[in-house]
């Protein structure tokens, strides 16, 4: 176990040791008051294994943080998979084909076949769960790794360093984002997802590059722009959560200390970002990287 911890520490030293001149610089913000400092770091949940994103500013944020705050805590994260699987299962008597209709089901089936999965792999899955799963599997096939996501890496380092890790929401709240689809909205989600899957490697690479370069405008287009045809989903997935998180973080100013908040980069870009809601509450948020 000590050897494993040592390897993790060495790995994080390597990602944080890139020079300020040559390092990629994902965006980093900060706000606070006289006795509280809160860093906001937008993450990408799935990255290539050789993506280098450590910088001196982020190292300072991590090293000085009394606690790491993620979208969900590790305990809640463990609940997410079984909850998602249960929510993503169709009622008895329904199938993916009968729910989607022959035409759209045929499109989904082609993507299943392209991954060399059994054609009936998602017969009992709700459409959103099937296409979400296909998206993750396709992204992994393209060379990206969820275990290398920035949030997961920060979580592992925090555990190694003995830093407390807290969450902004529960696993149930995350699952509800998808479980509340209306039939029409869910169908559009499937159509949009299938379109993105046509060139998932390029899309994910573009997302990674925009994040690495701190290009918040491109991130806004890639993340928020992709939800324009499903506005209610966008409201649940981004706007409502960003507003709720801003309230939690504003309240956190009552707790002295330094905190590193790491959430999906899409929550920290655009005109409904966490920072916008903090600004609405009279809190000034400054970008420091």
From TrEMBL:
Coiled coil: none annotated. CDD domains: Tiki. InterPro entries: TraB/PrgY/GumN_fam, YbaP-like. Residues 1-22 form the signal peptide. It holds the Pfam family TraB_PrgY_gumN. Keywords: Signal. It comes from the Bacteria. This is TraB/GumN family protein. It comes from Kordiimonas sediminis.
